[in-house]
Amino acid sequence: MDPHVKYRLGKSNGFKALIIILAFMCVIPLLAILAYIIQAGATKINWHFLTNIPKPVGETGGGIANALLGSLMMVAVAAIIAIPVGILSGIYLSENKNSKLAYWSRLSVDILQGVPSIVIGIVAYFWLVKPLGGFSALSGSIALSIMMLPIVVRSTEETLKLLPPSLKEAALALGMPYHRVILKVVLPCGISGILSGVMLSIARVAGETAPLLFTAFGNPYLNADMRKPMQSLPLLIFNYATSPYNDWHDLAWGASLILLAWVLLLNISTKLITRRWNIQL
Amino acid sequence: MEHTIISTEKFNAYFGDNHVVKDVTMTIPKNTVIAVMGPSGCGKTTFLRCINRMHELLPGARAAGKMTLNNEDIYDMHPIFVRLKIGMVFQRPNPFPNLSIYDNVIAGYKLNGIKLSKADRDNIVESSLSKAALWKEVKDTLHKKGTFLSGGQQQRLCIARAIAMEPEVLLLDEPTSALDPISTASVEELLFDLKKNYTLVIVTHNMQQAARVSEKTAFFYMGELVEYDDTKMMFTSPKDTRTQNYITGRFS
């Protein structure tokens, strides 16, 4: 074969090998983390672990029921706050691409996405915890909802922007009023993209520690009152992993595995939802 | 004299500073097929979209002048009522991808929140699909998504969706330009049947199509209505040299 062609083929094969290796390298960190946490945490998890609160230092056993309930409640309340606001703003942005308000709101959302979570935590402390007179799960939820907002807004906007204008025209030409065009045609057609944004935002904040440090604060006891301090999985991991006690380390490993499983599950179901509900345009 | 359904008087339409439809005055008689033809960018689609007030939805678009439907000024009515009375079929088939064939046909009722009994719905679906010459092909797959149909079937589904609302006028914006010749033939055949019940205004690039389906033809050039006459007259003895040039293919 012509040596020049051979050389070019060699170069192209080398490039192919390089991108394959690099793509594989992206998988390694996740696999390594998963393997490590499963190894450290799997033996700790059982029914007792999920349904009991931590025992005081010195006693063996105990569980993470307080953190599990706290995380679920706080993320749920954060989602209830962030999702409607996020989806509606996303609709506005995709419907009014060039208005001044859209420009500023898009910019703010982008910047908000880049604000460090610890800063959001501190701001929530000064705006909510101090005036309300104490740490509370509600202030934690609000801090989390601020973190969710940009993800929901942008994923809604990007999804709706991809819908062909002919779809809206079809609806308008049938004499549908604007709100029905949005609610009955635009939203249902973009539902898979919007839902996946919502799920990803939930997965994203489920593991946030910083916004909760000065807001929900943590609580060694089971608490379902949103006005009182509440434990959450990342807070528990943070506090117990940095403690000097082996029993608490075990709790932290178990909690890490639960949190990781939660996030993985959300990500996988997002993929399934996108595939299942995707609408062929 | 036949009954006039739509008439315009010195009607103008703009995109920002761009004057795209200039002083158009024409009357459209009931139950006829009107073809609107002309070279690209002559304002024919814009004119069509002014009739059901879809034009104004585009950014920077506006319209001025008089246009009436049954002697009522279209621009004094609420656009929603205009669009209920004047249906539209677009260049590319655009069935709702989230709805079944059945629901697509009654989309105008269903999505507008108009309650119908099951029997009424079944009737409307069957009669609209029959009028759109699609019933035989889809009657066993009514609950499949509309987007599974072929392009020509989708376009007939869109026609069924438009006529399900019992409009008085049906506007068609190059309804066959995205279709293959066989689908085009079936849609054209359908247009012929539809004029018994509806007034059709069809925008087309294709002169043969205009000659085949329409009774009257309007020729637009640079935003002006150059000539408007019986289709036969237009194609055999056009009065304006610009029409003549277009028909003989001297410019496109």
Compact description:
The complex is a heterodimer of chains A (281) and B (252). Chain A is mainly α and 281 residues long. Chain A is 76% helix and 0% strand.
SSE ordering of chain A: HHHHHHHHHHH
Most extensive interface between two protein chains, with residue counts: A-B, 21 and 29 residues
Helix content of chain A: over 70%
Number of strands of chain A: 0
Cα separation of the termini of chain A: 48 Å
Give the structural class of chain A. Answer: mainly alpha
The main sheet of chain A comes to:
none
**Class inferred from helices and paired strands of chain B:** alpha/beta
Largest sheet of chain B: 6 strands, mixed
Assess the beta-strand content of chain B as a share of residues.
25-35%
CA gyration radius of chain A, whole angstroms: 23 Å
Per-chain topology:
The complex is a heterodimer of chains A (281) and B (252).
Chain A lengths: L2 H39 L5 H5 L13 H31 L4 H15 L2 H16 L4 H25 L3 H9 L4 H29 L3 H4 L19 H9 L4 H32 L4
Helix pairs in contact in A: 1-11, 3-6, 3-8, 3-10, 4-6, 5-6, 6-8, 7-8, 8-11, 10-11
Chain B lengths: L3 E12 L2 E12 L3 E5 L6 H8 L9 E9 L2 E2 L5 H7 E4 L11 H5 L1 H4 L7 H14 L3 H4 L12 H13 L5 E5 L7 H14 L4 E6 L2 H7 L2 E6 L2 E7 H6 L4 H7 L5
Parallel strand pairs in B: 3-8, 3-9, 6-7, 7-8
Antiparallel strand pairs in B: 1-2, 1-4, 4-5, 9-10
Helix pairs in contact in B: 5-7, 7-8
Structure characterization notes:
Chain A is mainly α. Chain A has helices at 3-41, 47-51, 65-95, 100-114, 117-132, 137-161, 165-173, 178-206, 210-213, 233-241, 246-277. Chain A is 76% helix and 0% strand. Chain A is globular. The mean pLDDT of chain A is 92. A six-stranded mixed sheet of chain B has the order 6-7-8-3-9-10, with helices on both faces. A four-stranded antiparallel sheet of chain B has the order 2-1-4-5, with helices on one face. In chain B, helix 5 (118-131) crosses helix 7 and helix 7 (151-163) runs parallel beside helix 8 (181-194). The mean pLDDT of chain B is 90. Classes of the chains: A mainly alpha (281), B alpha/beta (252). The interface between A and B is medium-sized, with 21 and 29 residues.
